[in-house]
Amino acid sequence: MDSERFRKLLDTPGPFVSVYFEDTHNTPDADDQLELRWRALREQLQHEGVDDEVTTEIERAVMDLRPPVGWSGRGVVAGADGVVVNEHLLRPTATTVVRVSDLPYIVPIVEHGFVTPAYLLVEVDHTGADITIHVDGVLETEVVDGGGYPVHKASGAETAGYGDPQQRTDEAARKNIRAVADRIAELVDGTRAEAVFVVGEVRSRSDLIKALAERVQERAVPLEVGARNSGHDLTEVQGHIDTWFATRRLREIDDAAQRFDAEKGRQSGRAAEGLDAVCSALRQGAVETLIVGDIGDATVVADESMTTVAPNANALSEQGAAPAKTLRADEALPMWAVSVGAALVRTDERIDPADGVAAVLRYAPTLH
Fold this sequence. Notes:
It comes from Mycobacterium gordonae. It holds the Pfam family baeRF_family2. By secondary structure, this protein is of the alpha+beta class. It folds into three domains: 109 residues, Translation, Eukaryotic Peptide Chain Release Factor Subunit 1, Chain A (2-Layer Sandwich), CATH 3.30.960; 114 residues, eRF1 domain 2 (Nucleotidyltransferase, domain 5); 112 residues, CATH 3.30.1330.30. 37% of the residues lie in helices and 24% in strands. It has ten helices and 16 strands. A five-stranded mixed sheet has the order 7-6-5-8-9, with helices on both faces.
């Protein structure tokens, strides 16, 4: 998972409140169930001494977010100034989680969060396209009309004195497709869309993808769900898109596991494993991908301003820093990874690293 989405937490003053709970909405009494869950959460927050204003902000976030469809979880992270993260999860955490600490707890979002970056949905035919832009959950739709007509040869057309009607219709169709391809390139550059899903009959899809600029063509994903204006099921289209992103997430976990095993096997110095090695790599800014497994209740230590981190007080002292804070490793290490721009992966049985944490590195650090 790209850690950029968490960078706003780095500038948020603590302490932090991290809340994760089941937010399933598949029964007639779902709203009543949510109210009951919130009452229990509020009692826990009061028990933890959370400021009343922050609790009110969390309540507003919990109750006002549009309900999910079906089985779902929810993650809410608030700082001293209010809620920073409020989103649905693909599935709930095994148990309700309420933490009040110096750092936010983001591992459940890394594991179960909806990883849906900006993308385009293009419904195309040879007259133009309907383009829907998805950015941060906000949808905008526009129509591209290339102005090329006609795109269908008239029945019984004659060629004498007027040129070949087939050539005219083909050129009109190409003009429209080029206009769509140009607009898609502009939108991809403007939104940094990571995928362009293309819906349409076979020839329209094929012609558009061929016309796309190479940098955009690499992001094109054809969907075989019907033609433009055919009345296809938008729910089915969204299902294909969600499946594509879910598959990509599994592929990212596989890639991280394979790279870690490969670097570890060749002893290149570009794989770190265990709290000591990973903390060292994070201090040097060498971590490219942090791999989080079962860290459990392990802790690390940091200086007063939390500018450096180590597995224990002695290791921190060797860095010339005075140990001032003891932090949960499953909170501290992901946030340090965010600060150095590293990607985050919550692993499964593919990797079982020492101390529950590993990393693929950008380069071999000078020392561990």
